[in-house]
Amino acid sequence: MEEAKKAAGYKAVDDHVRSGMVVGLGTGSTAYYAVERVGQKLKSGELKDLVCIPTSEKTKKQALDLGIPLCTLNEKSKLDVAIDGADAVDPKLCLIKGGGGALLREKMVEVVSDKFVVIVDSSKLCKGLGPSFPLPVEITPFCHLHTMNVVASLAEVEGCKPVLRTGDCSNNKPDGEEPAVTDNGNYIVDLHFSKEIADATKAAQAIKKIVGVVDHGIFEGMAYQCIVAFPDGSCRVAGKGGEEPWWG
Ligand SMILES: O=C(CO)[C@H](O)[C@H](O)COP(=O)(O)O
Predict the structure, then answer these.
(1) 135-216 domain in CATH 3.30.70.1530?
(2) What is the ipTM of this complex?
(3) Which residue among 15, 60, 89, 188 has its CA within the 20 to 30 Å range from the CA of 98?
(4) Is 36 in the active site?
(5) Which residue windows are coiled coil (predicted)?
(6) Does the predicted TM-score (pTM) go above 0.90?
């Protein structure tokens, strides 16, 4: 799927990034290629006067290595476009994000972007959120087991199995003894579902209300469009400026 990820990342930059823009740079193995493309175009002079806001320390490092000018939301609180991957995309372009552990900064940046362009390979498309990828929830370290249990006991996420992320925060495979720590100093609980979340909107609202929860990986009503890349490198666009989502 590497070629597909690259195709989606490059297309998003080619279609949506223009000189003078403020651009949000996502996190993950697909967003990596969008950042790479921005770097290429700045170097060649095709893009000028760009300033970018990275959504993680990892992306910040990649961007700095490529010489991409950066700022923060403190300096620019309105973005022209943000480009980022996703872990699951349903036919309403409702997303699960946070597999790479960067959900809070991603949501903060993407919610203030005029256009949030999602880039995925076709394996991320799903009929309904839940079974294809666990839902990450960022929680404060203070009494984290308590918060984890409160989240898992919500009726809106009934049947889920909560797993505290350990080891490397940028993947949700249990790979360490210690809790994984986000760029913000928090922990992540991954909620595993064996069937679709009955109502993702209600689940999102209920989770967000819990004291001790920082944010969750449901990104609803945020995506402008989704660029879907296929194993042969071809792309289809769903959402505004594209087709009706064809999956589901
Ligand atoms: O939400 C994210 C990071 O927090 C990523 O965008 C998401 O996990 C997709 O990553 P990848 O493109 O590597 O599959």
Answers:
(1) no
(2) 0.98
(3) 15
(4) no
(5) none
(6) yes
